[in-house]
Amino acid sequence: MNIIIRQFIPEDVRPAQEMIYRTIRISYASFYSPREMEFFFNEHTIENILKESDEGYTVVALDGDKITGTGTLSGPHIGRVYTDPAYQGNGIGRRIMTALETKARADGIARLDLCASLPSKEFYLRMGYTIAEESYACMTDGITLHYFGMAKTLD
Fold this sequence. Notes:
By secondary structure, the chain is α+β, with helices and mostly antiparallel strands. It has 5 helices and 7 strands, in the order βαααβββαβαββ.
């Protein structure tokens, strides 16, 4: 496996979205209800992915021509970090986060924040992020979404 990390290009949007949806279906199923998972699907539309990549800095991880992970830096906020479940545990998420943190340092950002889903909290703790708050967001139809606000001060 020869994974490379490179900046997102618009042609990446559909395979990136498919990878994100696959990750949500597999990795979130034991943490969130189908209605809660629908919230995540709705957050990762083609339009939202393209908008954030235009406004921020998005990277993808590639195994050959297959997108295996992605993440976005928008100012001091990191978001949309996903690694394909078939590739989890191989350091891809760590490499994506390192690329985003490196870009943040180059941009003069001293502190990063992110919202961690239940299945991703432990990953971010291992990356040096701390829990700033445990939160429950009220969604439509009475759905409450459990997540963690996390932060890290960069060296």
